[in-house]
Design a protein that fits this description.
Layout lengths: L1 H21 L3 E6 L3 E3 L4 E8 L15 E3 L3 E9 L2 E14 L4 E4 L2 E5 L2 E5 L2 E6 L6 H8 L1 H6 L3 E7 L3 E2 L5 E9 L8 E3 L6 E5 L4 E7 L2 E14 L3 E5 L3 E8 L14 E8 L3 E5 L14 E12 L4 E2 L4 E10 L9 E2 L5 E3 L3 E5 L1 E10 L3 E4 L3 E7 L4 E7 L3 E5 L3 H7 L26 H26 L4 H18 L3 H12 L9 H5 L4 H19 L6 H21 L1
Parallel strand pairs: 2-10, 12-21, 22-30, 23-32
Antiparallel strand pairs: 1-3, 3-6, 4-6, 5-6, 7-10, 8-9, 11-13, 13-17, 14-19, 15-17, 16-17, 18-21, 19-20, 22-24, 24-28, 25-30, 26-28, 27-28, 29-32, 30-31
Helix pairs in contact: 6-7, 6-10, 7-10
Length: 557
Amino acid sequence: MKLFTKILFFIFLFLTVQLFATGNVSVKASIDRDTATLGERLTYTITVNGLANISAPKVPKVEGLTFSFPIVYQSISIVNGKSVSKSSFQYGVTASNIAEYEIPSFNFRLKGRDHHIPPIKFKVIKNIQRSAREDTVKSNPKKIIQAPLVFVENMVDKRVVYPNEPISMTFKFFRRVNLGSQPKYSPAETRGFLRLDDDENKEFLAERDDQKYYVISQKSILYPATSGIKIISPAIIQAAIAEPSGNNDFWSSGFFAKYKKVTLETKKIQIKVKSLPQGAPQGFTGAVAKDLRMKVKLNPTRGFKQGEPITIEVNLHGEGNIHALLAPELSDFVNFKQYDTVDNIGDGKNFRFILVPKIAGRLHLPALKFSYFDYGKKKYITLTKKLDLIQVRKAEQSATNTAIEKSEFKVLAEDIRFIKEEAKLKYQKDYFKFYLIFPLGIYIFFILLKLFNHFFLHKQDDINRLKSLGIALKKLKKTQVFDVLQVYLKSKLLIQENAISLSQVKAMVPGNIYNEIEVTWNELEYFRFSSHKLTEDERRNIAMDLERKLKKWDSIL
């Protein structure tokens, strides 16, 4: 019976952890536009908020639509002291005909729970007018080749600021070719700044030098902490891109062009942070903002009584780092007892002053004063709010007694209670014994778990490597030809990422083997996305050739 109770307890604990682990997960889908011309590429995005390091969802097949491999973005941010994970999967979508399409709804299973992804509709129309790109090709064919295929930029809206004055920084990644793998992004370092990144990246089409680019943009707000010269380091992206051959759009696609590695780097940015000017008013605490306003509210607004609290609610709102603002200053006052000030973030910065009248009669509430430097007007401003006289009624006897401070009491005597010496702790109950043994059981459980990790899971990598060939051959029997190579390499080389690239393989295998893998990889990619449909005999020959190569590589790797 005791063993059964323990088993139920651990099952309950496991289910509770799973419930909280997936309780805040949300999934949504979107497409970058609802109308496109024939031949244009759309971007279908599935975003999972609350989880990271998850596999890409399998999008249902739609007749007339081709989906590329997803580009995976993983991010973890800190919001209100809690870590928030987000995964985005971006699929390139191309249509073969002019029609109205619908990507149907489907369920995406995460951590044992199904999440519903709603349908997405869009239409593909005929391109009646010639595009600017076609005009450019005819008028100046060399311009298309000279225009950059990909580039990045990092821009700020101002370079001379005061401490705590906000700077808007926008990073953009431009591309007009397909990517061979997920790009590696190293954001710019912003030492000496408080940095707030926008949770959502923007994706859109833009034109530069008569070229259409697909753009991913991320915006951040920077607040310099101190004066001096600050440097924002370059942001770096490493990617494998498809290099077009000539001016033929068909041969410019990523499946036929050669992939090359590129490293894109933005320029470093210098920010001059000026010191605040002289002549700060008395009581200035370093606040910097723009067009700051102060609202004050009393609670209650009437019927004040001696010994009962009065709350002064203050709201400061405007532009700038509002979160860093300190509480306004209360002028000197008497006949009130003040309690600790409470602050919170809402529509601006909110403060609550709690005062308790000590006496009855007409009393002056203290005035409120707040000084700050307005970076828009470039001068110090002091906000002042004078409160009216209030009439405080005398408290009743019971109320007066409650308002007396503890310091006014004196201890005159204390009762003495004798403890029976023969009293003993009763631990004969079974549940009491369980509470004594339970911590020891938890300790033993974690010791066994650690031993299990050391003696079994430590060998799991070797086990996965041994199983890699068997898993790949099993997939071949199920005619999953095009996924086999990537599944085998991920298991054999112990690659944990969702997406695998040739650059990762090249760094981990000998050069002669890598050359064979690269050729096989490109052949499979060609057959996967070629308009030519393979016959059963052709598919069988590809599978037999791949099985022979896998056995050869497995004996060497």
